[in-house]
What we know:
By secondary structure, the chain is α/β, with parallel strands linked by helices. It is 37% helix and 21% strand. It has four domains: 2-111, Rossmann fold; 117-231, 2-Layer Sandwich (Transcription Regulator spoIIAA); 239-351, Transcription Regulator spoIIAA (2-Layer Sandwich), CATH 3.30.750; 357-411, CATH 2.40.50.140. Strands 11-12-13-15-14 form a five-stranded mixed barrel. The chain has a four-stranded mixed sheet with strand order 5-4-6-7, with helices on both faces. α2 links the parallel β1 and β2 (63-68). α8 (190-198) runs parallel beside α9. The protein is globular and about 60 Å long. Bound molecules: iron/sulfur cluster. Iron/sulfur cluster is lined by residues 131, 133-135, 138, 140-141, 175-176, 212.
Amino acid sequence: MNKAESVTxxxxxxxxxxxxTSKLKEADLVILNTCVVRQTAEEKVLxxxxxxxxxxxxxxxxxxxxxxxxxxxxIEALRAQFAYVDLFFRPGDYSELSKWLQxxxxxxxxxxxxxxxxxxxxxxxxxxxxxxxxCSYCIVPYRRxxxxxxxxxxxxxxxxxxxxxxxxxxTLLGQxxxxxxxxxxxxxxxxNLLAELSNIEGLARIRFLTNHPKDMSRDLIExxxxxxxVCEHVTLPVQSGDSGILNAMRRDYTADQYRNLVWxxxxxxxxxAVSTDVIVGFPGxxxxxxxxxxxxxxxxxxxxxxxxxxxxRAGTFAAEKYxxxxxxxxxxxxxxxxxxxxxxxxxxxxxxxxxxxxxxxxEGVKGDKCYGRTRGDxxxxxxxxxxxxxxLLDVEITTTSPWALQGFIRRI
Length: 412
Ligand code: SF4
């Protein structure tokens, strides 16, 4: 989400005549796009703000703007605390940014030129902001606020524009993407939106993340199976394989309900890649409960597992009500075990691609190899460095690892 919002902000700035620099010291304007999902991330924001404050003391013309999840609903308090910041604006609130830029309108000569052209064949498109779920460990609803969907017309218009700029694949984004639309007057669903976007000529692939298991409807599963452009790739965070821990996390499903959901998706979408997120060391997690997470992993065999160690986030229900009683050593050990299981399983799944030909959307060149992704989101390296960015190629797989595939072009 932050990456997508950074790209949009860059476009706003380019339209106002600003040029990007990779050197912080050369900047006239710095926008700090923050993440505070973990306490350490918030501390990093504070450290960076302190550093930029020093820069401003040396250069009075430097302007500092701050956005992202650091900017919660209490902007007044932030203004009082960080008086040297020129503007705080809520994540995705581009009208505030535009208003501010109009008052400091950069380089008018440059602004007369067309805005930045996207070179990449893939793009992120936020469709719903915020979250209504209040999982007990998570700060997001307090910072990003409640769910707010963009209108379908607005999204379709943006995707059409991206396609004219050469984008072939879009990833629809939301903290809780599959609850899209419930807050809009016509209450469109994500599956309605996927169907509409599928009609856009020139668009080859559609992905969406992240899904909440409790909001994964039959209708959506049916749409993934039915719509050709929607990739066979589902992100479905499970967080734990133990129903007691899931209850304490306020996830609103049991481990068995999750299992049944994955089997229903696999039944309707054969070959679908499923990725997940897991938190180890949640307050009170016993060895037995952790073993249930390992069992679930072995049973489901995810393509990718993102593992995080629990750390309390001030202001959340879990931080206020539960003791962070799993030791750092145990968290580390559980983390390593999950990573090892994930690596082994992903290696076995990827080995199944050996000798197969897969469709790859080429994203660019790294060193002497082209790289891109399959519909199931597998990273593939191939070719001799010739740049086929934006092309869909058939690649035969000759080497596999848990993290990537390698091969040669069968057909351009
Ligand atoms: S659904 Fe995701 S974003 Fe929303 S509260 Fe739970 S973990 Fe946080």
